[in-house]
Amino acid sequence: MRQLMPPPDSPDTAVDDDRLAELYAAGTTEAARWLRVNMVSTLDGAAMGADGRSGSISSDSDKSVFQTLRAWSDVVLIGAETARVERYTRLSHEHGRADVRRPGGPLLAIVSATGRVDVDRLFSADGGQPLLLTCRTADPDAVREFSARAGDDAVLIAGDTAVDLPTAVDELTARGLTRILSEGGPHLLGGLLAADLVDELDLTIGLEARGGEAGRIVQGVRLDTRFAAHTLLGAGDSLIGRWLVSRPESPDGSGRR
Ligand SMILES: NC(=O)c1ccc[n+]([C@@H]2O[C@H](COP(=O)([O-])OP(=O)(O)OC[C@H]3O[C@@H](n4cnc5c(N)ncnc54)[C@H](OP(=O)(O)O)[C@@H]3O)[C@@H](O)[C@H]2O)c1
């Protein structure tokens, strides 16, 4: 992997795991909360492969960034469909480099209007307490099943028929989970962008076209969100970028609130 942008100070442009961690930590510690979204797409814009999952369009360099971002995070936020399709289990304590990660590793927080997650699968691996971010019209049996396994304080209710994302994110922050990483999917990303909760999009573009009917990385809402390039890395299989949401009104124009 090589650093393309900004041009590195030294002639050595190679990016190893330590350099990758440095590049992805830069600028995130000054804010009281930082929410980034990590997504992968093909060069022709597909957010999933023919099997309906994102793993089949991922690459070795994408996996390195994925692990680096998990190491940085206090909580991994995902939509319930991603939890179902990508067969998420709660996150193991091993996720993330020991020297930088949250003690115990990141928690997993699932956003769901129905409250329906596969609790058996979730608990089929060791890990920290998973959280369910849901709303008042959720299926009461599903919510009861979740809290019976994860604990009453693992269920956060925000909103009536959908999760009020600003309230849910504030609740995570109030629990000290201030480094928030969303791993998608496209509908959750649309909701987070529409609510102006995203500080940064981390996008790996695989150097391939797959055609087909697959959706894009954002779905469900119309947006007019602008980004500014922060870092661009190149690998044999991917182009990897950190894109900050542009908030020209922010004090230093950096996008930081
Ligand atoms: N390319 C990538 O980087 C990437 C990343 C992640 C996922 N994916 C792919 O994306 C596909 C799934 O797409 P998707 O857009 O359906 O995934 P998603 O956004 O993860 O899940 C949508 C579901 O999340 C819940 N949800 C999201 N926002 C909500 C809100 N504000 N309030 C209440 N519930 C909310 C709902 O769950 P309920 O139905 O339970 O109410 C909704 O049906 C899969 O094929 C997956 O592999 C790709």
TrEMBL record:
Domain Bacterial bifunctional deaminase-reductase C-terminal: 33-225
Keywords, ordered alphabetically: NADP, Oxidoreductase
Range of residues in the leader sequence: none
GO molecular function: 5-amino-6-(5-phosphoribosylamino)uracil reductase activity
Pfam families: RibD_C
InterPro entries: DHFR-like_dom_sf, RibDG_C, Riboflavin_Biosynth_HTPR
Cross-referenced SUPFAM superfamilies: Dihydrofolate reductase-like
GO biological process: riboflavin biosynthetic process
Pathway: Cofactor biosynthesis; riboflavin biosynthesis
Domain of life: Bacteria
Stretches that traverse the bilayer: none
Alphabetical list of PANTHER family matching this protein: 2,5-DIAMINO-6-RIBOSYLAMINO-4(3H)-PYRIMIDINONE 5'-PHOSPHATE REDUCTASE, DIHYDROFOLATE REDUCTASE FAMILY PROTEIN (AFU_ORTHOLOGUE AFUA_8G06820)
Protein name: Riboflavin biosynthesis pyrimidine reductase
Organism annotation: Spelaeicoccus albus
